[in-house]
Design goal:
It is a single chain. Helices cover 26% and strands 20% of the residues. The chain contains four helices and eight strands. The strands form two sheets. It has a six-stranded mixed sheet, with helices on both faces. A two-stranded antiparallel ribbon has the order 6-7. Strand 1, helix 1 and strand 2 form a beta-alpha-beta unit. The chain is globular and about 50 Å long. The termini are far apart.
Length: 168
């Protein structure tokens, strides 16, 4: 297994009412991304207990999705987070080398976000880059909550307390 990256962590966003998703999520995560090189955190509420071996972050912000996310980001000591939602089940093997390539690109270009799910796909192809494209600044869904590597400061700047995941 690769050594843990000091510059990125996986953050799975959830809340207590969705705790029934945690066991299937982490079962599939461990099955299909056994060599994940990042520390993994579950952002949750205050009550539900995580599956064994899962690092949990708590927030008392209640239903305020954006404020909870801000609390979780403050608790993670990396410059980047790979953000996932609790119902984003991994269904096939994750290519860790491709993820690390995307992280290296994000670091080199100071990218705000490198989406790992290209739906919709990029509007602009980048020269000398076959995995990553660019979204037009006016494109719909250029920012989304699907699996993506985020520069934490850029993500924090986009969050508006009171907004939910769909408004984000």
């Amino acid at each position: 297994m690769p050594s843990r990256s000091v510059n990125c962590a996986v953050l799975v966003l959830s809340c207590d009412p969705y705790s029934d998703l945690w066991t299937p999520f982490f079962t599939l995560f461990r099955k299909y991304w056994a060599d994940c090189p990042f520390s993994v955190f579950l952002g949750a509420g205050l009550i539900a207990q995580p599956p064994n071996g899962v690092n949990i972050l708590r927030s008392s912000a209640g239903r305020d999705w954006s404020q909870c996310l801000l609390d979780y980001l403050a608790a993670i000591d990396t410059d980047y987070v790979l953000l996932m939602l609790d119902d984003f089940f991994i269904r096939r093997r994750v290519d860790t080398e491709k993820i690390l390539h995307c992280l290296k690109f994000a670091e080199a270009k100071q990218a705000a976000q490198v989406r790992l799910v290209a739906r919709p796909g990029p509007q602009v192809r980048l020269r000398d880059e076959n995995l990553i494209g660019a979204c037009d600044p006016r494109a719909r869904y250029r920012v989304c909550a699907k699996a993506a590597i985020w520069r934490k400061d850029a993500l924090r700047n986009l969050l508006v307390p009171g907004e939910n995941a769909w408004e984000f």
